[in-house]
Amino acid sequence: MKFNPKRLIVAAAAMAVATQAASAAFTFNNGDLILGFQATSGMGSTKNVFFNLGSPIAYRDGTGVANIGNISTTLNAVFSTQTTNWYDRSDVYFGVIANLNTESPTGFDNPGQVGGDPSRTFYLSAPATAPGSGLSYAPNTFASSSLGTAGSNLAGLEANLPGFTTEADGAAILDQGTQPVQWNNSWTIRNPTPGASFGTLTGGIQQNFGKVTDSTYVDLQRVLASNTGANPTGVIGGGTYETTFAIGRNGSITAVPEPSTALLGTLGVLALLRRRRA
Amino acid sequence: MKLKISLTCGILALAITNSHAVTRVFDITGATAFRASANNAIISVLGGATTEYAYIGTKGIAGTDRAIFKGTMSAFPGDVIIVRASWSGSTAGIKAVADQDSTVQFLETTNPMSITGTNLGQGANPAPVYTTAIAQWSFSDVDKLLSERPNHTFAGGPVGVVPFMFLAGEGAPAALDNMTDQLHATLWSLGQLPIAFFTGDTADTTLVLATGRNNGSGTRATILAETQYGAFTTVKQFNATFQGTTTDPFPTGKLLVASSFGNNGHTSNGLVRDVLTRRSDDLTFNGNPLDAVFVSYLTISDALAAKTEGAQEMTYNGVAFSAENVKKGLYTLWGYQQFYRDADATAQEVTFDTAFRAAIPATLNGTDAIALTQMSIVRGGGDGGPVAPGDNYPLANP
User: How far apart are the first and last CA of chain B?
Assistant: First the structure.
C-alpha cells in the first residue's frame, strides 16, 4: 500500500463510519468492501458480524486507511464463550468481498467501468499466513459468468445491510432468531464451510481464527472479468494482490502494506532519520 | 293456548332474527396466481348463480386484482354477505394479515354489482371506488416460511395444489421448449443466456432474457424453491414496454423497449403475460436493436390463456404439464395453495372461514388448481421439497 494524502480523507470518512451512534442504520454504499464473520458451530453460529471497510478502489490505489477500526466489543459479545475468546476459536471465520455491478462487461447492458473497474470486477479475500503470502487466484479461475452469478448472490446480502443496526464500535449483527428472512442471504448461507463462496467462488474466500499469532490475515485480490476499460489492467478471471487486512487479537482491523511497500517505507524513515542526524 | 303462545313466540323470534339481519363484510388478500380459483370459490359459496359481483381491469373476473362479491351463506341465515378480494401477491398478503395492515386496498361496498359481473371502469360502468381495510385472510402459493413473517401464528393451511408452467415469448423458435433446474439457475442469476443453451444452435445469436414476478410474489417463491435456486436468492430480470393487445398480430402488437428489472419484477402474472404474448422483433435496449426473446413462468390459468395469445409452452425438466402428470409426480412445478387466517379472528370470521374452506375443493377445476383429495403424492419438507408417494398412493408405498 502506498502513502498518499488522500488517505487522510478516507481515514476521516472511515472513522466517521466507525463512530456512528449506536442504533443508527448500518452504512453501505454499493461496491463497498464488506468484512463478514461467522461461527460454524457453537456460540454465535446463528449470527453474523459485518463491518464496512469502505471503497475497494481506495485500497487498489493506495489511498486506503491503515487503522480501520476495532470491533472487539461486538466480536466478544457474539463469538466469545465463557472459556474461549473469539480469537482463539478455529471455527470462527471471516472474509472480505466487494462487487459494484453484475452485468457482463461485454453484454448489451454493460454499464461500463467505474473508477477503472469494469463491470463484474470483484475484490476477494484469500487466507494468508503473513501479508502478501496468500494464494493468488490464478488467471481464468473464475469465468465472467461465474462472477456474474456470485454478484447476484452477493447482492442479496448487500441489500440487507442498510437495514441492520450499527453497534457502538461500527459493526453490525445479523441474528437468525430475530431476522430469519434476512438470514437467507446471510454470510453463513453464502459462505458454506467448506464450499464455494457466493455460489461460484470455488474454494471460498474465508480465513479462520485459532492461530497462535496475534494477527490473522487475508490478502485482498482484485479479480477482473475483462480488461476493457480497466485502469489499472489486471488478471482476467484471476487475482491481483492489493493489500492485506489483519484482524488483531485485540479486535483491531488494519490494512497492512504489502511487503515491498513496507520495506520502502522503512527505508524512507531510515533515510529521514539519517538526514536529521546529519 | 300453548300453541298460540308458541306461534306468537315463533313469529316474534323471526321478527327479531330479521331485525338483526346484518351485512357482514369479509376481506381476503394474497395470491394473484390463485385468484381465478379463489374468485370462483367465493362466487360458489355466496350462492353461485345468484351471487352479485364487480371487478376491475380488462382480464375478466378470473384475472382481476380487485373484486367484490355479494350473496348469502347458510352459515349466516338472513344476512347479506360481502366478500372483498385484493389480490396483491402471496407473501405480501401474508405480511398484511400478520401485521393487521389497515391500508390494504379493497373495492368499496357501494360499488354496483350484478349477477353477470360488473366490470368497473369499463364501457358504461362507473369507475371503481376504493377503500382500505384490514384483511383477515390471505391465500398464498407458498408456506409462510417463505414469507417475511415466517414466525407469525396463523390458522389454516393448504386447500389445494397450484401448478405452474414455463413459457417462451411469442415468436420464440420451436426448439426453445424446455426448462431445466440448471438452465433456470443460470438464466435467473445472470438475467440472460445465449439461446443456444436451450436449442443447441450456436449459429443463433439471439439472447434469452428472464422476466418474472416481483419480490413478494408467491409464484416467484414457488418457482425459485422448486428449482432449488433459493426462494430468497436475488434474481436478475428484464422488462419490456409494448403496444397493442395480447391478441394483436405483429406489428400492431409488439414489444418495444427492454429495461432491467434487477431483482424486481412484475406485480402480477397478468403483466408477465403481457410480455410473453408479443413478438420481440423490434425490441431495443438503450436505443440499440436487441435480438432477444423472453422466458418466464405463469400459473396454469394464465399460461393457457397466454398460449392462445402466442406464447410458447415449455416443458419442465423434460416433462409437459398436465394435471395427470402433476398427480403422478412426473411434473413437479407446483406448490400447495395455503389459505391463512389471522389467529385473532372473531366468531363470525371463524364461521365464515369454516364454511368457505369446506367449499373450496369442490370449486377447483382440476387443472388450474387441484383438490388435495385428488393427489396421491405429497411434497415433504415445505416448498421445493421432494415429491413422494402419499399414503393413498396406488402402488406399494416405499
Answer: 71
Q: Residue A90, class by beta-carbon neighbours within 10 Å (0-12 exposed, 13-18 middle, 19+ buried)?
A: exposed
List pLDDT tens digits, range B84-111. Answer: 999 988 988 999 999 999 999 999 999 9
Q: How many CA atoms lie within 13 A of B27 on its CB side?
A: 22
Q: Note whether A110 contacts B: Cβ–Cβ < 8 A.
A: no
Dihedral sign, Cα of residue A196, residue A197, residue A202, residue A206: negative
Closest CA–CA distance from residue A102 to any residue of chain B (Å) = 8
- What total of structural domains would you count in chain B? 2
Give the helix/strand (H/E) hosting B17: helix B2-19
**Per-residue pLDDT reduced to its tens digit, A204-220:** 999 999 999 999 999 99
For chain A, domain boundaries: 6-277
Residue range(s) defining the domain that contains residue B200: 162-328
- Residue A29: pLDDT over 60: yes
Does B396 fall in a domain? no
pLDDT for B20 equals: 66
Question: Which residues of chain B are modeled with pLDDT < 50?
Answer: 1-17
Record: contact A184-B285, CB cut-off 8 A: no
Domain end point (choices B281, B302, B328): B328
In chain A, % of residues over pLDDT 90: 82
Q: What's the whole-model pTM score?
A: 0.86
This model of the complex carries an ipTM of 0.84
Handedness of CA B112, B139, B220, B216 (dihedral sign): positive
Probe site for chain B from A101, A106, A109, A147 (most B CB atoms < 10 A): A109
For B238, the closest chain A residue by CA position comes to A109
**CATH (domain of B300):** 3.40.190.10
8 Å CB contact of A145 and B290: no
In a domain, B90, yes or no: yes
Gap from A183 CA to chain B (nearest CA, Å): 9
Rounded distance, CA B196 to CA B211, Å?
18
Q: Identify whether B210 is part of a domain.
A: yes
Which residue shows C-alpha cell 473464475? Answer: A142
